[in-house]
Automatic annotation (TrEMBL):
<feature type="transmembrane region" description="Helical">
    <location>
        <begin position="134"/>
        <end position="153"/>
    </location>
</feature>
<dbReference type="GO" id="GO:0005886">
    <property type="term" value="C:plasma membrane"/>
</dbReference>
<keyword id="KW-1003">Cell membrane</keyword>
<keyword id="KW-0472">Membrane</keyword>
<feature type="transmembrane region" description="Helical">
    <location>
        <begin position="21"/>
        <end position="43"/>
    </location>
</feature>
<feature type="transmembrane region" description="Helical">
    <location>
        <begin position="308"/>
        <end position="329"/>
    </location>
</feature>
<feature type="transmembrane region" description="Helical">
    <location>
        <begin position="173"/>
        <end position="195"/>
    </location>
</feature>
<feature type="transmembrane region" description="Helical">
    <location>
        <begin position="257"/>
        <end position="273"/>
    </location>
</feature>
<dbReference type="Pfam" id="PF02653">
    <property type="entry name" value="BPD_transp_2"/>
</dbReference>
<feature type="transmembrane region" description="Helical">
    <location>
        <begin position="226"/>
        <end position="245"/>
    </location>
</feature>
<keyword id="KW-0812">Transmembrane</keyword>
<feature type="transmembrane region" description="Helical">
    <location>
        <begin position="55"/>
        <end position="75"/>
    </location>
</feature>
<keyword id="KW-1133">Transmembrane helix</keyword>
<dbReference type="GO" id="GO:0022857">
    <property type="term" value="F:transmembrane transporter activity"/>
</dbReference>
<feature type="transmembrane region" description="Helical">
    <location>
        <begin position="82"/>
        <end position="100"/>
    </location>
</feature>
<feature type="transmembrane region" description="Helical">
    <location>
        <begin position="106"/>
        <end position="127"/>
    </location>
</feature>
<dbReference type="InterPro" id="IPR001851">
    <property type="entry name" value="ABC_transp_permease"/>
</dbReference>
Length: 331
């Protein structure tokens, strides 16, 4: 028994109940409180439909990459390659369209398949070679960064981008809603159904909860862990494609910062509604907290460095709340 668990058992039942409620709902309360505070401080700029739509649009890519990362984390692993992979995929899709003159759908399909392949390689390194996932995915991510620079020679690909590709992110094809929001909703919905409503999802959760017990139950743990990495890789690839479409260029390090955002969202999500468990709905709420926080800081003219401070603080708080929820659940 850990010291933290032992200490929690010394608390009164009422105190444990209060801490449990706080651990489960603190992030939601924080999100609502932050929106209310920003709305009160800037009633003309912040609480508007245009601004909220803009926040969701800006958050959409972070939600997609975070959703994929959630699957890797649920199976008990960490994928530190997602940001670097998204940057490579953004450069590659631009190169295939502009330099190789491939049709947009074909280029996107190739990049998504490559994302799956990279995830598969991550899974093989972790499950077959028994390399720690932090080391394995960080090494793979570094290799991907080198490949991105080699492919683009360190120069952004900007000339000759077809309008059809730009409209994937910038267009509003249905009901005036930005396409990225719709894509985000479809991806997140699919991931939620996979994890919460399918037999494979039950296996994913079983492997993350107790790999030894899952193996005794006949589950192919290596296959499930690899699947988690593959889904993470595909979502990273899709994020890279959408980011290049939004920016109108393929830049070698454009998506690197999504790594920290994704981890902050995933760990915030684990402190939401469940006792330290990673899940898709929680990741969405975590990503929205970060997005609305950034939006509020921008509206009030906060300097750029404040965003990094905010994101780092959010990550620390998220891990703390997740640990608190897990300790209480075990007590």
């Amino acid at each position: 028994m850990s010291d933290a668990t032992f200490a929690s058992r010394r608390l009164s039942p009422r105190t444990r109940l209060a801490l449990g409620v706080f651990a489960r709902y603190a992030t939601i309360i924080g999100l609502i409180g932050m929106i209310a505070a920003f709305s009160a401080l800037s009633p003309r700029a912040f609480p508007t439909l245009i601004n909220f739509t803009n926040v969701l649009n800006q958050a959409s890519l972070a939600v997609i990459i975070s959703g994929g990362l959630t699957l890797a984390v649920i199976v008990g692993e960490l994928d530190l390659s997602v940001g670097f992979a998204a940057s490579l995929h953004g450069v590659l899709v631009m190169g295939l369209i502009v330099s190789n003159q491939l049709p947009v759908p074909v280029a996107i399909l190739i990049v998504l398949l490559l994302g799956a392949l990279i995830g598969y390689v991550n899974g093989l390194i972790v499950t077959r070679l028994k390399v720690n996932s932090v080391i394995a995915t960080l090494g793979v991510g570094t290799i991907l960064t080198g490949l991105a620079f080699a492919y683009a020679s360190g120069v952004p690909i900007v000339a000759g981008v077809p309008e059809a590709f730009l409209q994937i992110s910038l267009g509003r094809w249905f009901f005036g809603i930005p396409n990225n929001i719709l894509i985000m909703a479809v991806v997140l919905g699919a991931l939620w159904v996979l994890v919460e409503r399918t037999s494979i999802g039950q296996e994913i959760q079983a492997v993350g909860g107790n790999p030894a017990a899952a193996r005794l139950a006949g589950i192919d743990v290596a296959r499930i862990k690899t699947l988690g990495f593959v889904i993470s890789g595909v979502c990273a690839a899709l994020t890279g494609v959408l980011l290049s479409s939004r920016l109108g260029s393929g830049t070698t390090n454009a998506a690197d910062s999504y790594l920290m955002t994704a981890f902050a969202a995933v760990f915030l999500g684990s402190a939401t509604l469940r006792d330290g468990e990673f899940h898709i709905v929680g990741t969405l709420i975590g990503a929205l907290i970060i997005a609305f926080g950034f939006n509020g800081l921008n509206i009030f003219g906060a300097p750029t460095f404040s965003q990094y401070i905010f994101q780092g603080a959010i990550l620390i708080v998220a891990v703390g709340l997740s640990s608190l929820g897990r300790i209480i659940a075990e007590s």
